[in-house]
Amino acid sequence: MRERMSAGWWMETVAQDVRYALRGFWRSKAFAVSAVLTLALGIGATTAVFSVVDPILFRALPYADAGRLVSVGFAVASAPEEFMAGRFYLDWQANQKPFAAIASQGDAPHSCDLVENHPAKLECVTFQAGMLPMLGISPVLGRNFLPEEDVPHGSPVVMISYSLWHGHYGSDPQITGREINIDGDLVRVVGVLPRDFQFPTLEPADVVQPMALDAAVQNTVNGGFGDEMQTFARLKSGVSLAEAQVQMQSVSNPEMEWLPERMRDSTRLSIRPLREREMGDTRRLAWILLGAVVTVLLIACANVGGLMVARGAERQRELAVCAALGASRWRLARQGLTEGLLLALAGAAVGLTLAEGLLRVFVALAPAGVPFLGNAHLDLRIAAFTVLLSLGCGVVFGLVTALHRPDGLVVNVRSTLSRRHVRLRRGLVMSQIAASVVLLAGAALLLRSFQRIEEQRLGFTTHGVMTAQIALPAFRYDTDAKWMEFHMQVEEAIRRVPGVTAVAFGDSVPPGGWQAKLRYSDLIVKDRPPTPPGLGGWFARRSVTPEYFRALDIPVIRGRGFTDEDRKEGARLVVLSQLAAARLFPGDDPIGKYSVRGPGGAWFTVAGVADDAKNGGLTSDEDPEIYFLRGDVAGDWRDRRAVLVIRSALPAATVAGLLQAAVHNLDPTVPVEMEPLTQAVNRLADRPRFETALLGFFALMGLAMSAVGIYGILAYLTSQRTQEIGVRMALGATRADILVLIAGDGLRMVLAGGAVGLAAALGLAHVLRALLYQTSTYDTLAFAAAPLVLGAVAIAAILLPARTGMRVEPAEALRSE
User: Fold this and answer.
1) What is the longest distance spanned by two Cα atoms in the chain?
2) How far apart are CA 538 and CA 730, in angstroms?
């Protein structure tokens, strides 16, 4: 009975606290709305960003016991990911000492054709039968490859992706056992991958085929090194990364002897967690965003804390009366906690709605290449995080109002307690200012970096240029001659279109994406000593038709470019970029005087020198470049790579329609992928643009809340000093004196908080180093802009309450007391 009475009493007491708090909020609507919206903004932004970074930083990968999965292979400075060669992999597989399992995937997905009544261009990839078991994954329908299928000349079987099964085959439950035509060959579907299956390389694929490694072949192809592949393993229980590195070093050391001498010094064994490989530099971005949004949350909390302090100061007489009537410290603290928790829960409810909207904006604006961002969503874990975050804020807010227990001397309450609250609130405002300066400085650095990316010289013109790739089915166009003839017919058809000024093919186009590479030491200049192996770095290599330079508006500044006569005659000519000419022929003019021999052994005469073009992406320095003529010889097209480049004054949509028609007239089943070059270049800037926009958004949020905090404290102090202002004016003070009095108070807070923030920003600037392009982490303009922007906003926030103070009439101020 006593327990029931005790429980009932507690429930009734809590209900009284809630009713009392709600009545107080109703009487102070401006306070309640301001606190809830400020808190919702901070919590909403934090929750949205946490939804983005959670799978990158905290959530386990979608594999069984993912912490023991590693990426293994050889690492070189010029490649972002480790690689494995087939010859070496077979030795690793036979000596997998620290691994419970090891399996490989083909180097990259490749285009393949689904030949049916409804043909489609797909992405195919190969991996070993042991890949899915090693990852702890089972097909959602059917089975994995059998060991006897993953051998040379094994049964032609495939597994297909869930999206292909659902979208193309309508989730047909009888798909397993069905034969489908891939590249002209009938293969049997044995399984369907799970809906959310994630390839360890994060590259999507529609069809998976057995790798079927042949030891004899791997010891002969690619100079005896075998095919390139991506290898993954599961560590044995209790084996650390360091132990695995030591154990596999004895296997990899003899294999290093097979590498060319020029590669040995720059190649090392690499065993690293699969998460580290998948996330790459995205982890740094995720931590920066998380730090930025937590800073915004702290600013929001400081702002709400300041509101609570101000409200607590206004209620001191009320609380003093309660204390005089017998209310204990615990009773007053409990009431404060109740009010804080109610505000926090209301902020959480609004914040969750805001978070959903912000998350959709983030996903819509996000560039390609940020892992898992497209699948980011608010789930139960995120909602629980939001609620716990809100409850923590509520407890802090409640404790702010419960810091002091007013005594019974109601007459002295204002004079003894307001100064404590003022000091606390000043501290909260200065902390907001400091945090805002940190965010503003970071956003200014990224903005400066992005400005330099946008303003850099590309070396070619993108306006009026359309690029296209024609996806020819390999099983029908199975010879180099057929492949060349089709592309030359398309080129001739587009050349005849009025308004088209240049048409060319290249195996690639700048500034980013795939391009062929040559080692500097592989290029030999006739009558000059060769470069020692392994020295000089890389050259970009491009195979182009004669109008390539005119199509991209790349100036040929010495000598000449290629001509149609050169192409028909099969002339052995090259054009060098300025950087390449300076490297190969320092201080000399190479035009017509020298020949260059590439890895194939043929000699090429230097026909001209072209201007340097940005060829390493927008945020990397360009490499020296060598252009080879792609002639009317089938052997020049053997790499089966061709990007069509069209310069035209016609609208992009018109050019696209004409190209589609030209291809359709030759083969109506062949798809064409087209896009303006301007769009492709802009896409390369998507990620720095996204990073800058996000950090800038958080900086503006922090700045706005800091301005509100400055205005709030000065407005409160001005209202508290009404009598003082009246006395000063009665004794002869002018309105300008009152402006200096109030504005000086605000400026001291801004200067103190700004100084602390600037020092913190300088200390934390190195965190952004990896995200900056040609911008120092201590860029003077960026660090000058942050306090200037804050100062401008702060002055506006200061002048509003100062203007109110200047309007005080002395007589009315004295009578009010």
Assistant:
1) 108
2) 81
First vs last C-alpha separation in the chain: 54
Tell me the pairing of strands 516-519 and 538-544: antiparallel
3-class DSSP state of 501: strand
* Residue 639: strand, helix, or coil: coil
> pLDDT of 459-489, one tens digit each?
999 999 999 988 888 778 888 899 999 999 9
Q: Name the range with the highest mean pLDDT among 352-366, 549-563, 634-648.
A: 549-563
CB 648 within 8 A of CB 552: no
CB 646 within 8 A of CB 500: yes
* pLDDT (0 to 100) of residue 164: 94
Spell out the residues 6+ positions from residue 539 whose beta carbon is closer than 8 angstroms to its own: 517, 518, 519, 520, 523, 580, 623, 624, 625, 626
pTM over 0.85: no
Strands 228-235 and 69-76: antiparallel
CA–CA separation, 301 and 340 (whole Å): 11
* Count of positions (residues) in the chain: 817
Identify whether the C-beta of residue 110 lies closer than 8 Å to the C-beta of residue 122: no
Give the C-alpha separation, 737 to 727, whole Å. 13
SS (H, E, C) 434-468: HHHHHHHHHHHHHHHHHHHHHHCCCCCCCCCEEEE
Work out the average pLDDT over 423-450: 85
Partners of residue 273 on adjacent β-strands: 70
Residue among 334, 344, 436 at smallest CA distance from 389: 344
